[in-house]
Amino acid sequence: MGGAISLTLGSLLYPSMLGVQKVNSASARVVAAPATGPLTEADRDFVVQVRSAGLWEYPAGQTAAKKGTAKAVRKAGEQLVDGDAALDAACRDVAGQLGITLPNRPSPQQQGFESRLKAESGKQFDTDLATTVRAANGQFLTTIAGVRTTTRNSLVRALADQANDTVLDHITAVEETGLVDFGQVLARETASPGLPAQDLTPPPAIAGQPQVILTPPADSTVSPSPTAG
């Protein structure tokens, strides 16, 4: 992933399946009752989704910063790395306080994004990077809004606020490249929810495996939002 590695203890909870957004009675089921407010299945899944999103977008940003042919693409890549590192730090903090197990790898779909971008070069890479990031973040905004509206847990609410700011910043960054193919964005946003749930679910971390850390750049200007236990 390009980040540093540190050891952490395993946690108690992990979703069996994640979609782009789960809107049903099961998602409202309370799975824990910490001091920060009831934690629902949807809350738990959201924390995992934040982690999973950063695990593919962070290395994609590193790649863009190195091999983007347009200056705006390289700049966007740097913003992705900076924002994802800060959001991941907040996510790991929240997960640790709530006892949520986080993955070390993104979902199969997201791994496909990363692999495809690594294999591309030139203008094709620039355009695909901008379009893929725009489509993925556009979808995630819907999930963030749903969780922010319904959660009763203050830690999840704070994480949703930071995720919202980060996603909007990343959307703006790739749109400013002028390379987003909005026709493809619409097609991807429409098609992705129809994928099998296993393609949208990150694999659980292996027991005892060091946790992947998304390392912030030395000149980072983004800080994780403070959280209270």
Describe this structure in words.
- The protein is 58% helix and 4% strand.
- It has seven helices and four strands; from the N terminus they run βββαααααααβ.
- The protein has helices at residues 41-67, 71-98, 108-119, 122-150, 154-175, 182-191, 197-200, and strands spanning 5-6, 30-32, 39-40, 211-212.
- A two-stranded antiparallel sheet has the order 1-4. A two-stranded antiparallel sheet has the order 2-3.
- β2 (30-32) and β3 form a beta hairpin.
- α1 (41-67) runs antiparallel to α2 (71-98) and α1 (41-67) runs antiparallel to α4.
Q: Which labels suit this protein?
A:
229 residues, mainly alpha, two-stranded antiparallel ribbon, 4% strand
β content, as a range?
under 5%
* Largest sheet properties: 2 strands, antiparallel
Chain oligomer state: single chain
Category by helix and strand content: mainly alpha
Question: Which term fits the overall shape?
Answer: globular
Widest sheet, order of strands: 1-4
Order of helices and strands: EEEHHHHHHHE
Total of helices: 7
Write down the overall mean pLDDT.
87
Number of strands: 4
Offer a concise description of the structure.
With 229 residues, the chain is mainly alpha-helical. The protein is built from 7 helices and 4 strands; from the N terminus they run E-E-E-H-H-H-H-H-H-H-E.
